[in-house]
Design brief:
Helix content is 40%, strand content 24%. By secondary structure, it is α/β, with parallel strands linked by helices. A six-stranded mixed beta sheet has the order 3-2-1-4-7-13. The chain has a five-stranded mixed beta sheet with strand order 10-9-8-11-12, sandwiched between helices.
Length: 348
């Protein structure tokens, strides 16, 4: 049977909204995919500011933004469907935009009301994929391992470098996954201080000087010694990372944090003796970061075509939606730490 699903992904790095229209086929329990159409819609200054600062809103303001952003998503999907004259859409699967992520307190919040998306498009919508996992004792993240398992199992591991870097791989017959460290959520913030939205090719970092005192403090944060499954959120960055980065020039912070990210990523490759890793996400274009990772590991880095680099996460949320409408498992407890594998997402 064939499914045509639109996946929506907005990451913590605020690069924009990824929209991916994917085609999925399940033949003899083997899933095949095709990215039919995809695009990234950059956030306007208005929306970037709103999403960057939504952590500070009161309850009423946050609820208003949840609704407003839902209609924003719905409009962008409607335009996407019209632009590419899509005639056959079975489902829209939306990740939403993460505001709070505190699995230790049994909650996570991704804004963007799925009901608003459905109202504007009159197509079934699946959304809020993370909350059920958190209520079941899991981290609610990472969720993409189900896609790595079903679509990309030919690689030893899959690494996504976005706002955070996260990895998934098979160990002892089970899919293991966890967040490694922050990446673009920090790099973009300090690139902004130098007048750019991001550190293109890592040029600022390359020109900066590594502050080894700060690097040591970063590398010895307790999170890196804790065992997976584990996940990261903005709250952790605000409490543990940003206070360490005060007082140095932005170029030096970028050099230091790029070195930190490269070290943490390479440490995982080496520890688990990974032979090859599929790289996707915006951080894959940071050539200096990739150089620094290669410098620290013999693991082969596989960089796929641009379409997969940019849209793998949105593609996998489309797959998660496909699994949801078929009542099949779309979250792996071995990856999130929840009490059982389960089928998650509110379907309307």
């Amino acid at each position: 049977m064939e499914f045509h699903v639109i996946g929506l992904m907005s990451g913590t790095s605020l690069d924009g909204l990824d929209i991916c229209y994917g085609k999925f086929q399940n033949e003899n329990r083997i899933w095949k995919y095709e990215i039919v159409k995809a695009e990234t819609i950059s956030y306007s200054q208005h929306w970037e500011g709103k999403l960057r600062n939504c952590l500070n809103l009161n309850a009423a303001e946050l609820l208003a933004l949840h609704s407003e952003y839902g209609f924003f998503l719905g409009k962008r999907v409607k335009e996407f469907i019209g632009q590419f004259a899509l005639k056959n859409v079975d489902l829209i699967a939306s990740h939403g935009h993460t505001v709070f992520h505190q699995p230790q307190n049994k909650f996570t919040l991704q804004i963007g009301d799925g009901r608003a998306i459905k109202i504007l498009n009159e197509i079934p919508v699946a959304y809020d994929f993370r909350s059920q996992d958190v209520l079941m004792g899991g981290n609610g993240a990472p969720l993409v391992p189900i896609g790595d398992e079903l679509l990309f199992s030919q690689y030893d591991a899959c690494l996504n470098i976005g706002g955070f870097s996260n990895i998934s791989f098979k160990k002892d017959g089970k899919r293991m996954a966890f967040d490694i460290c922050p990446v673009n959520v920090i790099l973009n913030q300090f690139a902004l201080k130098l007048g750019k939205n991001y550190d293109e090719n890592g040029d600022f970092a390359r020109a900066g000087t590594v502050n080894f005192e700060i690097l040591t403090l970063l590398n010895t944060l307790p999170f890196y010694q804790s065992a997976p499954p584990k996940s990261l959120g903005i709250e952790w960055i605000n409490e543990h990372v940003l206070p360490l980065l005060e007082g140095d020039h932005a170029e030096n912070i970028l050099a230091t944090f790029t070195e930190h990210a490269a070290f943490q990523i390479a440490e995982i490759f080496n520890h688990f003796k990974l032979k090859n890793v599929l790289f996707t996400g915006g951080g894959t274009y940071n050539s200096y970061l990739i150089e620094r990772i290669k410098n620290k590991t013999s693991t082969a880095i596989i960089v796929p075509e641009k379409e997969l680099i940019d849209f793998k996460e949105a593609l996998i949320f489309a797959l998660m939606g496909t699994l949801r409408i078929n009542n099949e498992i779309n979250i792996l407890s071995s990856a999130t730490g929840s009490s059982a594998d389960h089928c998650s997402g509110i379907l309307i």
